[in-house]
């Protein structure tokens, strides 16, 4: 009888200018959640190098020449990795803060100020990340 | 009615666990970040230090719990998001199995790594 | 072709209640409605439902108030049915979960309302109708009653004996808005019309756009007389720019009316020395217009309704909805400033003539709710008396249509009591060129099925004809012309010359309607077509109202005539009746029934 | 039905009813013409200097050639103080294009027919002042529903969801007395008050991305309806359990991701998210009892 005018996902996000606070919070939370789970998998993969180190010669390990230590240090020596880590921090901090906001909302706290608490999460995330940059970039060889 | 009721069990419990793990993760994740970036700097990480920490039982069990909760929380979050996007039927079952397998692999691998640090040989074949 | 025992046309409060009652009495019921049930205008009712529930009050007092309010044009058997059964119907609503406002002890609250001698108006905030409508619809959902929503009923399938009293109704023909299909609905036992108000004949009205008087017009053209059509209630407190209603509840709670000079004119102007703002609606409306006409109106248009002194807590508790309405539709904050109000068309006391069971003179055809006139409201409806009418008579008609019978005390149709009437009109009335009068020579003893088939065929052709044309006049112009003349000439204050002018204008509009065309060729959701059909109904309605107003040369209730400013009980204790006869309206009268069960209601002066 | 016959009839009519009548009619006609001329002039003048609002209205008709491909039409409507989007649409329909189709009835935000997508958010046409909007005012049918024609969408799915939560009062213990009401405390009425205001407009459902993605999701309005009954103390504890079972189904409250869009757009200011969250907690609480 009727034909629908295409209102797929793309079109929805094409309306991003019309999103309200709660929608943005949802989009960001989803995005950061996916990044975090993605990272968790990567993280464990990288850490798995420890398996070889455990069975390696104790001397190599003592000399920090084992695969794990070398991998980590090589990675941490790269600026990109450090920058990615800052990104990860931002993602994690936002997810935590907004997650806390969501937990409170689940408990029925702050429903009326949900937009403000979202903005607060954003600002706080920004502040924490900026404050952490020196630490995160410390000791990186350019 | 009965049908609804059973599906409720799943929906409601998963929802609750998502919150419980979230609450736990707030603390642990903050601790984790703090420890590995602020207390010890990232570029100073070595196998020996990690192994040293892992050998304390309290730290070991915390990290295992961290792994389990984070995996559950993350994977369940993804699954939930897919259901919200309208995933149904066979596709949904496939996704559920895939996610289940992935988390199992993640857990096993995480376990093995932690054990390697801690010097535990719980199950030799791993 | 659909077939049911009982077909209910319209799903406002009256239709829903009727459907539930008929179903409970064992009938297989379907509802056919041009709007989805929850969109019906019953949802707009704000103030409340009158019911004598409490110690110190009883139905006889309520009946007395109602007769007095009606200015003795109400029929006692109907009034008594209303007042006797309204308590149980209200409690029934409560048992169905309706969210009434409550007293501290958890019982249903009641508040004072205009023209009532006891605070007997039950209410749910200032959105009583919304709750009533939704509660009833919920029960319809629960019972799984079939609802054909967004089906526009085009006509009734009525047989065509010469005497309308011998005709019978066998179903309806409806147009499915979404698809353009015209289908027949056969009713084995009865058709119940519950199509609501007709406010769209005016341009300043509290009524919805869908309130076009379809039911009255359809029944009228099928031969059922329309009763007391001139009795139109103008509500004294509507917002000037939109006609949105500010409930009488505001005055019930203690709201005060002021003119431009800051006078509380209801008392100071001597309009109602006892009841002031709470006098009956017609009294207050006239008072306001008199103030405006004599130059004491604000911006020469309206007066002020002030509720600030009630205090925020009480206002928010009982009248919260009013705050939203004033804010959204007039930009006024009721907590901070007085609200502008003026009279607007609100309610039609008249309608399809029925007895106290909702039955018309056509066998198998019932009417309930605002489209009907069992005559509980007579010349003036009291606030809070329409909603109980919906549930009481809805329920009665539903049971009756489903087979329960009881002898009525009110007679319907043209009996020996009828007194012929005559008015001098400046133009010929009706549609003398009409080809679709009911009586078109078919065999009288036709089977119901054939009648339905024939009606279906005729309506299909009518729709096709309207769609085929592609030039002429558009209905919107015609509708605007009718609304304009009615608002100008058949308003609160009525004069002979103006009424005649209205008839001339209506006639002109009819002539233009002869070459009306529908611009939208689509059969999908063609609202242009539906509105064109509605406009034709409005023409008939406007004419009936005006003819009645012209005939009744007295002042009774809502009906005021400049040259006849007194109630004439000698000649006018009778209903004005208009029947459609071979394409034109025929005027006659029937006496009012003032004999009640235990007492006769002696006309007294109506003072407040 | 030709004009020919019409004229003939008017003639017989006037011969029958005297020439005075005719004169009156003539005068009347002149008056009418005069008035009409004045009105047209006034309108032209108004149109010339009136502020006009520019509307961009979505058009689609599956049957009419030229409308089968969705498009936007422009209308320029003269502004009057207090004019709402609905008023503007009515003006555009009555003056410019009779086929412009939209649902509406009450004009006072109670029938819930005219929820539209106006400048990017779901609102009731009759409740939205033109003066609050930026131009051009973009008017579209509610997103995430099938478009039937122009601004009319298919509401069937919404109604189905509403009706799937057993939206009717059910209780086992009624008072004995036939004329006796069930008691309800003021606090309890207050608690459900906001939830009872829903007018079934569908704005919330249309704004919710979850509902858009998951067709089976009950949606905020239906959940709110369930809340209205679950929280009504008159229904009793047993019924409350049953109500919770309904909203706890797979596509019930758990799907809600607290996007708040529903709460934001609800024309009746129902705190939908709050109600949904409360139900989630109630559900967990009652569920914990079984452990
Ligand atoms: C603003 C306002 C406030 C009011 N406040 C009060 C109050 O406080 N107390 C009180 O007692 N009364 C009040 N009234 C009066 C009362 O609300 C109405 O008289 C009453 O609601 C009418 O109900 P109904 O069921 O007859 O018609 P409606 O509720 O108008 O329903 C009419 C139904 O008929 C259907 N319909 C119409 N034509 C057709 C057709 N051709 N084909 C198919 N279906 C059709 C419609 O779809 C609709 O479902 C108020 C009225 C208004 C306008
Ligand atoms: C390793 C860390 C984490 C990972 C991998 C992770 C991952 C995720 C993912 C994938 C989602 C689903 C998002 C969606 O698509 O809707 C999610 C949801 C959620 N996360 Fe996390 N998260 C992590 C840490 C946290 C922490 C520390 C919190 C603490 C507050 C948190 C709170 C939440 C909440 C409340 C939700 C549910 C959102 C909802 O369903 O409404 N998460 N998380
Ligand atoms: S909850 Fe609000 S937005 Fe949703 S249908 Fe009801 S009134 Fe409309
Ligand atoms: S928008 Fe949707 S996600 Fe929940 S808060 Fe409202 S139902
Ligand atoms: S027209 Fe009724 S809600 Fe807008």
UniProtKB/TrEMBL annotation, chain A:
PANTHER family: SUCCINATE DEHYDROGENASE 2 MEMBRANE SUBUNIT SDHC, SUCCINATE DEHYDROGENASE HYDROPHOBIC MEMBRANE ANCHOR SUBUNIT
Top-level taxon of the source organism: Archaea
Transmembrane segments: 21-41, 77-97, 118-140
Entry's Gene Ontology cellular component terms: membrane
Name of the molecule in the record: Succinate dehydrogenase, cytochrome b556 subunit
Compartment list: Membrane
Listed Pfam families: Sdh_cyt
GO molecular function, one term: metal ion binding
InterPro entries in the cross-refs: SdhC_prok (IPR039023), SQR/QFR_C/D (IPR034804), Succ_DH_cytb556 (IPR014314), SuccDH_FuR_B_TM-su (IPR000701)
Gene Ontology terms describing biological process: tricarboxylic acid cycle
Annotated keywords: Heme, Iron, Membrane, Metal-binding, Transmembrane, Transmembrane helix
TrEMBL record, chain B:
Domain of life: Archaea
Key words, A-Z: Heme, Iron, Membrane, Metal-binding, Transmembrane, Transmembrane helix
Gene3D superfamilies: Fumarate reductase/succinate dehydrogenase, transmembrane subunit (1.20.1300.10)
One Gene Ontology cellular component: membrane
Principal subcellular localisation of the protein: membrane
A Pfam family that the UniProt record links to this protein: Sdh_cyt
Subcellular location(s) per record: Membrane
A GO MF label: metal ion binding
Sequence intervals crossing the membrane: 20-39, 59-82, 94-111
Protein name: Succinate dehydrogenase
Species name: Haloplanus salinus
Lineage: Archaea, Methanobacteriati, Methanobacteriota, Stenosarchaea group, Halobacteria
Automatic annotation (TrEMBL), chain C:
GO molecular function, one term: succinate dehydrogenase (quinone) activity
EC assignment: 1.3.5.1
Localization of this protein: Membrane
Biological source species: Haloplanus salinus
Residue stretches in coiled coil: none
Cofactor: FAD
Keywords: Electron transport, FAD, Flavoprotein, Membrane, Oxidoreductase, Transport
Transport in keyword set: yes
Domain FAD-dependent oxidoreductase 2 FAD-binding, chain residue ranges per copy: 5-387
Highest taxon of source: Archaea
Membrane topology: Peripheral membrane protein
Residues annotated as the enzyme's active site: 281
Family: Belongs to the FAD-dependent oxidoreductase 2 family. FRD/SDH subfamily.
SUPFAM superfamilies named among the record's database cross-references: FAD/NAD(P)-binding domain, Succinate dehydrogenase/fumarate reductase flavoprotein C-terminal domain, Succinate dehydrogenase/fumarate reductase flavoprotein, catalytic domain
Subcellular location, principal: membrane
Segments forming domain Fumarate reductase/succinate dehydrogenase flavoprotein-like C-terminal: 479-608
GO cellular component, one term: membrane
Protein name according to UniProt: succinate dehydrogenase
Automatic annotation (TrEMBL), chain D:
Pathway: Carbohydrate metabolism; tricarboxylic acid cycle
Database matches in SUPFAM superfamilies: 2Fe-2S ferredoxin-like, alpha-helical ferredoxin
Entries under Gene3D superfamilies matching the protein: 3.10.20.30, Alpha-helical ferredoxin (1.10.1060.10)
Chain spans, region Disordered: 1-46, 166-188
Domain 4Fe-4S ferredoxin-type residues, every copy: 188-218
Highest taxon listed in the record's lineage: Archaea
InterPro entries: 2Fe-2S_ferredoxin-like_sf, 2Fe-2S_ferredoxin-type, 4Fe4S_Fe-S-bd, Beta-grasp_dom_sf, Helical_ferredxn, SDH/FRD_Iron-Sulfur, Succ_DH/fum_Rdtase_Fe-S, Succ_DH/fum_Rdtase_N
Keywords in alphabetical order: 2Fe-2S, 4Fe-4S, Iron, Iron-sulfur, Metal-binding, Oxidoreductase
GO BP: respiratory electron transport chain; tricarboxylic acid cycle
Ranges annotated as biased composition (Basic and acidic residues): 1-10, 20-46, 173-188
Molecular function via GO: 2 iron, 2 sulfur cluster binding; 4 iron, 4 sulfur cluster binding; electron transfer activity; metal ion binding; oxidoreductase activity
Pfam families for this protein: Fer2_3, Fer4_8
PROSITE patterns, per the entry: 4FE4S_FER_2 (PS51379)
Cofactors, names only: [2Fe-2S] cluster; [3Fe-4S] cluster; [4Fe-4S] cluster
Family: Belongs to the succinate dehydrogenase/fumarate reductase iron-sulfur protein family.
PANTHER family: SUCCINATE DEHYDROGENASE [UBIQUINONE] IRON-SULFUR SUBUNIT, MITOCHONDRIAL (PTHR11921:SF29), SUCCINATE DEHYDROGENASE IRON-SULFUR PROTEIN (PTHR11921)
Protein name according to UniProt: Succinate dehydrogenase/fumarate reductase iron-sulfur subunit
Taxonomic source organism: Haloplanus salinus
Lineage: Archaea, Methanobacteriati, Methanobacteriota, Stenosarchaea group, Halobacteria
